[in-house]
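Q: Study each token:
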Amino acid sequence: MSKLTKLFKGPGGGKSRGGPSPQEALARLRETEDMLGKKQEYLEKKIEQELATAKKHGTKNKRAALQALKRKKRFEKQLVQIDGTLSTIEFQREALENSHTNTEVLKNMGYAARAMKSVHENMDIDKIDSLMQDITEQQEVAQEISDAISRPAGFGEEFDEDELLAELEELEQEELNRHMENVRLPSVPSTSLPSKPASSRRRAEDEDDLKHLAAWAS
């Protein structure tokens, strides 16, 4: 059985059924592409052979040369047709692959949607809202506890700091006054200053005597 016959004849000896699967259709298209590709190679070789024959005979046997060129033209025409057919099959195969991909994507999306629906059926929206409210309240309580723990435990924070500073200044001033009272200044001496020594008085008297003697001698 040829490949073209297999292409148009379904599995099971031509018995009809619901329709081929995308995988089967893609496999058939790839088989056809391979077959046509081999046909292209065959025609290209035949074209080369006929061209060589035409060159060989040339003007020696013009009739044989013309027949070779005619066969070359027919092979070239078949080659062009196969190129067009391959382009059509390639386009159809790509479209089928895309359709198969889209089908698989939609199938998986539908499967996921059913799974989500099954999960959501076991959920009660009212219970979810209540649970979220409980979570929010507990988070607020936890935050309040954290704030309370982080505050320094200051006993006596009710006192005014300005009053404490003023009281401290008063204590410092009292301490300064007490220190000044304990400091004693030296007293003024009650005795008179000592008089000139006797030797000094005698020296002054001698000087006076010398002055009188000098005046008398002159």
Q: What stands out?
A: Confidence is low (pLDDT under 50) at residues 10-16. The helical segments are 3-8, 22-57, 62-121, 125-150, 161-182, 198-217.
